[in-house]
Amino acid sequence: MSGGRPPLARAVVARGSAALQPATIVGRSVTVFGRGLAPISLLASGVTAFLWVADRAFSPMLLGGALGGPAAEAVEIALWLALILFQGAAVTAIALRTIRGERAGAVRAAAIAARRLGAVVGASLLTAAAVVPGVAAFVAPGLAALASFAVAVPVAVDERGGPVRALLRSADLTRGRRLRVGAGLVLVAVLCSACVLLLWAGLFRIAPRTSWTGFAALLGLHALLALPAVAAAVVYEALRDAREAPERELERVFG
To answer: Could you report the per-residue pLDDT of 143-183, keeping only the tens digit for each?
Structure first.
């Protein structure tokens, strides 16, 4: 039953629901990724270059200085995770601007990511804290938590508020649509993993194993890791349309 909604509102809801079909999520994500490939590649190049230099410049200092062994490795892992989350936030900004027909530049996206990085890191850590134990214990609860908080990062990037609000907002937006959202994002993750494996297999087959080959492999990894972030942004925008577009459409027509 559609309740008391007028036909116009029901039509908008139906359009938003169609955008949340798993196959549509995958297709739309690939399309947005392709349209934003230039700034995404620029961001991936910057992150890869920074990590490449850091690994060669900072690691000897850490290992030969006050930090050594596990402590140095922990610092490197923390740096890598921080940059991955920063890149994910910037890619999310690029994807949202691309979807909305706005100019999506790497510099502007990086500025947005830097401004919202605290909320993004907090939302990501809280999501991991909810998902990992659930997956480790019974699998299903972890997957349910992952679907519930699937758009926490886009919320953290696009809206005001801290990480807790981002999780609550994500849970509200995904309510009633978590199965389709989860299925779509899983398909995107599978596609991303397959592309990474194919890239690495082809790269190391045709090129000798040198430091430059390793750099190219790392660059490809970071570029392809943008695809799940793009997918989350696509789902977030579709969820907003499905939940909020009817009211906006009615205000536009009758307001």
So the answer is: 888 899 999 999 999 998 999 999 999 999 999 999 999 99
- For the stretch 192-196, contacts whose Cβ atoms lie closer than 8 Å and that sit 24 or more positions apart, written own/partner, are 192/224, 192/225, 192/227, 192/228, 195/224, 195/227, 196/220, 196/221, 196/224
Q: Which two tokens stand for residue 129?
A: 């804290």
Angle at 156 between CA 138 and CA 136, to 5 degrees: 10
Contacts of residue 36, Cβ cutoff 8 Å, sequence gap at least 6: 91, 94, 95, 98, 104, 230
Residue closest to 184 by CA, chosen among 20, 31, 33:
20
Write the DSSP symbol of residue 66: S
Q: Is 69 helix (H, G, I), strand (E, B) or coil?
A: coil
Distance separating alpha carbons of residues 147 and 16, to the nearest angstrom: 18
For 98-140, give the DSSP string: HHTT----HHHHHHHHHHHHHHHHHHHHHHHHHHHHHHHHTSH
- Binned at pLDDT 50, 70 and 90, residue 106 comes out as very high
Q: What pTM was estimated for this model as a whole?
A: 0.81
Question: Angle at which helices 22-35 and 37-64 pack, to 10 degrees?
Answer: 80
The reported pLDDT for the residue numbered 195 is: 86
